[in-house]
Design brief:
By secondary structure, the protein is an alpha/beta fold. The chain has a domain at about 205-420. About 40% of the residues lie in helices and about 10% in strands. It contains 17 helices and 11 strands. The protein has helices at about 80-85, 120-130, 145-165, 175-190, 205-225, 235-260, 270-280, 300-310, 320-350, 375-385, 395-400, 415-425, 450-460, 465-470, 500-505, 520-535, 540-550; strands at about 40-50, 50-60, 65-70, 80, 95-100, 105-110, 130-135, 170-175, 195-200, 435-440, 475-480. The chain has an 8-stranded mixed beta sheet, with helices on both faces. Helix 4 links the parallel strand 8 and strand 9. Helix 16 packs antiparallel against helix 17 (about 540-550).
Length: about 575
């Protein structure tokens, strides 16, 4: 079905993309041999086996004895073309530098600037409560879990070696990949860290994260853009060119769909519906920062459906709203799914000394039955949306994808050596060791909330956690942020499509997007962790957990369970 989606789609992707924020300006560094004084910001570099990492420590005017050690999230290591980088907000983020890349031109590249908090507002609030803030920039960017853990350990040693006076305890916290680093760090250093706060993390590891991306990209290759490389990028510059071409292809097509310039793919499928199918099979949300998956353009009320269609108004239905949301979400996910995969494959090549003729692919999709990844509930909810593109379109698309089952040429077999290398990278284990507070958004296009849920359920299912729970002393809790109960998609008067700015304002920054927490949620969950660590009785543990549930935008349903993670290889069994 031909449909005009928002003309501002690509420009609005930043709100659903990587967590890109700013922090207070860095003050002159203190001497490495002196403690960082009250109210001072101290910077420097620490050396480890994986390289040098920059760090920052910011002291409050009056120290309460607790240091918050922050691990930052994923930063794309390779240059991203400027147009795409700006759509993702990299031009406004201090953690990306403007660069020039031969053959590409203006680009943005992730840098090693340290980060001590998710946002400047959160940093100021926590400093006002007496917390010292610390963070490192990592020796390398990309899927740098090894570098992140090493940086955290180096910074811990530096803090405990006299860089901060009067330390009573250290809490570790982090976002996205930093959430995984946070939990890995405390599991390796339980005697040095009193509690952890991993947020919106890829807690189920990189294989699950990149399987999600593989589902999206293989669907695109099968139904939208057959020229996509998808995986096993060539070594070095040649592979970088392949990845940049893939990313440009996806963003160009999404941009053309958003303006109505392109509706049908070169292989004959409706692009908007094919993209919706890709996201549904991968488990991506049907809400984005602009589209709530519910609201219909008010023009339908005055013009009627036929008149609104003729006038090019959108969205015309809840299904059209979800379809537009999925375009934004896939665009956000593609940045990690393409550039992130290229970087991790290059990392695998280096670690394993793989030759150019050897595959660096670490996610196998050869036996996947993609039609099984579309649940009956999803099929029922969006049947009308798919049928609007033509009778039998959905089954035809699923049939095209399943037709290549078992093919090692049409699909992407994994190299066992590459799989082993990725499995060996630092990743959190679902063990109950120290007090832990987890938090994630319920509509995350990068790391679906099932990552937090499954990790938490496995953790509290351990014998140690069960024994603590019997006494009411199980110090673990998971919070989920949610958007407003009413729809938040907003329109300028007479506008043909939604306003990204008005929608984001109505959304309020909670529950939708990747690691998009409010400052109140940042500060509130730190308070919950602090109380949980200090709790000595079952009553105190229960009271500590209530602190998080009382935060605005946090789901009050303590039995909340998101949709299960989509696990492609599980479809090959039974």
């Amino acid at each position: 079905m031909t449909r005009s989606l928002t003309r501002r789609l690509v420009a609005g992707i930043a709100a659903a993309g990587l967590a890109l924020i700013s922090v207070p300006a860095i003050a002159p560094a203190a001497s490495a041999v002196d403690a960082c004084a009250p109210g001072q910001t101290c910077t420097g570099a620490l050396s480890g086996k994986l390289g040098d990492t920059s760090f920052q420590i910011t002291m409050p005017p009056k120290f309460n004895g607790t240091v918050l050690l922050y691990s930052h999230g994923y930063r794309i290591a390779q240059p991203v073309p400027a147009a795409i980088g700006m759509a993702l907000g990299m031009d406004k983020a201090p953690y990306y530098s403007a660069t020039t890349t031969p053959g590409v031109g203006a680009t943005y590249t992730g840098n090693g600037i340290p980060q001590v908090a998710p946002s400047a507002e959160s940093a100021m609030a926590l400093l006002g409560q007496g917390y010292a803030l610390a963070g490192a920039g990592y020796a390398n960017q990309g899927w740098a879990t090894a570098e992140g853990v090493e940086a955290g350990e180096l910074l811990l040693r530096h803090i405990n070696g006299g860089a901060v006076k009067g330390v009573k305890q250290v809490y570790a916290w982090g976002d996205s990949m930093g959430g995984s680093i946070t939990q890995s760090l405390i599991q390796r250093n339980p005697g040095k860290i009193a509690g952890s706060l991993p947020r919106c993390g890829a807690m189920e590891g990189p294989e699950q994260a990149f399987q999600t991306a593989m589902t999206v990209m293989f669907a695109w290759k099968s139904l939208v853009a057959p020229t996509l490389k998808v995986a096993n990028y060539a070594p070095g510059a040649a592979g970088y060119a392949e990845a940049v071409t893939d990313l440009g292809t996806v963003f160009t097509i999404i941009g053309k769909v958003s303006t109505g310039e392109m509706t049908v793919s070169p292989v004959g499928y409706p692009i908007a519906q094919a993209n919706l199918l890709a996201g549904l099979m991968a488990g991506l949300p049907t809400k984005s920062p602009t589209y709530d998956g519910v609201t219909v353009n008010p023009a339908v009320n005055t013009l009627g459906l036929g008149g609104a269609i003729a006038g090019g108004y959108s969205p015309l239905s809840a299904g059209a709203n979800s379809t537009a949301a999925m375009l934004q979400n896939v665009a956000a996910a593609a940045a990690l799914g393409i550039m992130g995969r290229y970087e991790l494959e290059q990392r695998v090549r280096k670690i394993g000394s793989l030759g150019a003729d050897q595959s660096a692919n670490f996610t196998d999709n050869v036996p996947v039955v993609y039609s099984k990844l579309l649940s009956p509930e999803q099929r029922g909810e969006f049947e009308g949306t798919f049928t609007a593109a033509g009778p039998g379109v959905l089954d035809a698309m699923l049939g095209t994808m399943d037709a290549s089952i078992g093919s090692t040429t049409a699909r992407f077999p994994a190299n066992p050596a590459a799989v082993a290398i990725v499995k060996a990278l630092p990743a959190p284990k679902a063990t109950y060791d120290k007090p832990v507070v987890l938090m994630t958004t319920t509509y995350d296009p990068i790391v679906p909330d099932g990552n937090t849920y499954e990790f938490y359920e496995d953790m509290v299912g351990t014998a140690k956690a069960k024994a603590a729970a019997k006494k009411g002393l199980m110090k673990a809790v998971a919070y989920y942020t949610v958007p407003p109960a009413d729809g938040y998609t907003s329109f300028e008067p007479g506008a043909k499509s939604a306003s990204a700015a008005l929608s984001a304002a109505a959304l309020g920054g909670s529950g939708v997007g990747h690691c998009t927490f409010t400052a109140a949620q940042d500060v509130g969950t730190v308070a919950a962790l602090n109380s949980l660590v200090k709790a000595k009785t079952a009553k105190a543990v229960a009271a500590a957990k209530k602190i998080g549930y009382a935060i605005a935008g946090v789901n009050k349903d303590r039995f909340y369970a998101p949709s299960p993670l989509k696990k492609p290889l599980a479809t090959a069994r039974g």
